[in-house]
Inverse folding.
């Protein structure tokens, strides 16, 4: 296994002033080549700290990627520090100078001394062309490690990686084949999921590993197979999927890049069915789950955002007596909301939400996180009571997720 480390340099990253997307992108690209990222680090614009992290990386990795600190200003230290680290001088590189000269000439700008110095490179570095900017990349083969230094600007870094660095890595390293398969589940927690598949997990072949990737409301299972034959790895992973899927079929909603509402949308299209929503506590978030997907107009008709009780009464036909007797957060109210929007918009199905998202508004009888959801279908209404305990946004998200999943399970005849 070829081990990689990624180092990002810049105070602005540590201060949180910019989001570091470089390390994620680089890791994904390395993974495609069978190169395993073993460490990601960020360091500020401090010479001693940068030297220290370089020394540490040399002990862990076969290839080290460095982004940032290659600009023309005084706070950009990477190039000088690398020259010191590899005990060599900076020298004007003729091709780099030609590139930076042409870069400014094309834009009708004069090449200043500070920009001319962008073409100064450590003499031990191999020049790596940057077709998108003025700071060239550098490739070192020193201390038994490959070192790749690139600008921190994402579009410059990506261009350098795709056009120059990744092809070089393929020829330099003999890497194994890595194949991933991601199973996406909803409606079950990580610990409960692990109990259901424990016996299967314990019998996995040594070269196939399982990882649990939980997020709010969703747990992804990632199978990673390592070997030399991609076709064989895919076949072996498919065989394992065939074993585990029956154990958790009710919770699996998709694979890889599938999103829950997108999957439900495809089910609705297959059935030539339509959907409307009536929302209170989710405030439009439920509708957004569907409308953010291209092609949603084929099944999603619209919704009514009935945040105030009077809107529930006037627009959805909820009886005032229901709200007076049971409250807006009740099974009786949510049933009426779902039926009301289904009739008003003339759809096959309707989803509804009403609850107490928080942080205020709860009571002993109905604490914050109490949410009712409903699905109106061809033959009646299905309701569910949720007892959530998160923040306001978590409660809104989980309520929407539960609604979408309720419809998914109904469409698949999977409700118990």
């Amino acid at each position: 296994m070829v081990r990689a480390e990624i180092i990002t340099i810049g105070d602005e990253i540590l201060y949180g002033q910019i989001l570091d997307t470089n390390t994620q992108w680089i890791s994904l690209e390395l993974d495609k080549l069978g190169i395993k990222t073993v460490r990601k680090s960020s360091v500020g614009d401090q010479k001693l700290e940068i030297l220290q992290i370089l020394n540490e990386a040399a002990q862990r990795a076969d290839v080290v990627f460095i982004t940032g600190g290659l600009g023309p200003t005084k706070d950009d230290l990477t190039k000088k520090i690398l020259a010191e680290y590899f005990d060599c001088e900076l020298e004007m590189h003729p091709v780099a100078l030609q590139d930076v000269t042409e870069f400014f000439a094309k834009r009708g700008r004069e090449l200043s001394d500070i920009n001319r110095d962008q073409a100064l490179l450590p003499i031990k570095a191999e020049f790596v062309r940057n077709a998108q900017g003025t700071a060239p990349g550098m490739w070192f083969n020193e201390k038994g490690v490959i070192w790749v230094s690139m600008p921190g600007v994402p579009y410059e870094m990506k261009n350098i990686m795709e056009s120059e660095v990744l092809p070089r890595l393929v020829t330099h390293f003999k890497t194994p084949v890595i194949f991933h398969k991601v199973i996406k589940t909803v409606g079950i927690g990580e610990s409960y999921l692990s109990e259901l598949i424990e016996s299967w997990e314990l019998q996995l072949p040594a070269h196939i590993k399982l990882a649990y990737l939980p997020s709010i409301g969703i747990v992804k299972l990632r199978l990673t197979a390592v070997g030399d034959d991609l076709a064989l790895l895919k076949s072996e992973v498919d065989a394992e999927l065939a074993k585990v899927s029956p154990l958790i079929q009710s919770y699996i909603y998709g694979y890889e890049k599938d999103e829950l509402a997108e999957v439900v949308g495809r089910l609705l299209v297959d059935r030539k069915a339509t959907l409307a929503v009536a929302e209170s506590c989710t405030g439009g978030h439920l509708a957004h789950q569907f409308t953010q997907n291209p092609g949603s107009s084929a099944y999603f008709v619209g919704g009514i955002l009935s945040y105030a009780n009077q809107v529930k009464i006037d627009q959805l036909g909820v009886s005032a007596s229901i709200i007076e007797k049971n409250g807006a957060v009740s099974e009786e109210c949510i049933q009426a909301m779902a039926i009301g929007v289904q009739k008003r918009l003339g759809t096959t199905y309707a989803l509804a939400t009403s609850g107490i998202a928080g942080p205020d508004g709860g009571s002993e009888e109905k604490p914050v996180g109490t949410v009712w959801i409903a699905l109106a279908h061809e033959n009646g209404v299905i309701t569910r009571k949720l007892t959530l305990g998160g923040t306001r946004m978590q409660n809104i998200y989980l309520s929407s997720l539960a609604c979408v999943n309720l419809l998914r399970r109904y469409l698949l005849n999977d409700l118990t």
The CA atoms of residues 375 and 381 lie 6 Å apart. The chain has three domains: 2-172, 177-255, 260-411. The domain at 260-411 is CATH 3.90.950.20 (Maf protein).
